[in-house]
Write a structure and sequence with these properties.
CATH class: Alpha Beta
Strand order of the largest sheet: 1-2-3
Structural class: alpha+beta
Largest sheet: 3 strands, mixed
Distance between the termini: 41 Å
CATH architecture: Roll
Order of helices and strands: EHEEHHEEHHH
Helix content: 40-55%
Oligomer: single chain
Number of domains: 1
Low-confidence stretches: none
Strand content: 15-25%
């Protein structure tokens, strides 16, 4: 099964020069916890999460309206192509400890987003039909890996 078969295509994104307050408002309005960040050419250049907004506001001691998305976004972009296999995308999420990845074309234009929830939903419906590409224990392993504290976090404690 391919990423294209499972990804969400109705995705909200945000320009990199928007304020963190704008990003928070979009997340609230769209009931999501992460947004792909686009540059002026509308290529995906990063992701921003609700946690990124909170931590940037706290660490810089500034209101979200006073900070830009570029001040808080993750610039290390892990993305998938629509023709990538679900196994590949799931492995990427596991290795990078992330719950969602943007799906982009060859020019890094946003086509959709793939979340761990999308994979779980596909896995449970495929398991009931007996045609699952990803076994439930593989999905559970990915969730466990994503939830594990990063090594760098241990140094901050």
């Amino acid at each position: 099964m391919k990423v294209l078969d499972v990804m969400t295509t109705n995705v909200t994104s945000i320009p990199s020069d928007a304020s963190l307050a704008d990003a928070a408002r979009l997340m609230w309005d769209c009931d999501c916890g992460a947004l792909p960040v686009l540059d002026a050419s509308e290529a995906v250049i990063g992701m921003i999460t609700d946690r990124d907004i909170c931590m940037a506001s706290w660490s810089k001691d500034r209101a979200p309206s006073a900070l830009r998305v570029t001040d808080a976004m993750s610039r290390e972009l892990a993305a998938a192509a629509p023709d990538d296999s679900l196994s590949y995308a799931e492995g990427l999420m596991r290795s990078k400890q992330i719950r969602r990845i943007p799906v982009v074309d060859a020019n890094h234009r946003l086509l959709g987003i793939l979340s761990l929830a999308d994979i779980v939903r596909q896995g449970s419906s495929s398991a009931s039909r007996g045609d699952g590409e990803l076994a439930p224990d593989q999905i559970a392993l990915t969730l466990a890996q994503i939830c594990r504290p990063p090594v760098a976090s241990a140094a901050r404690l």
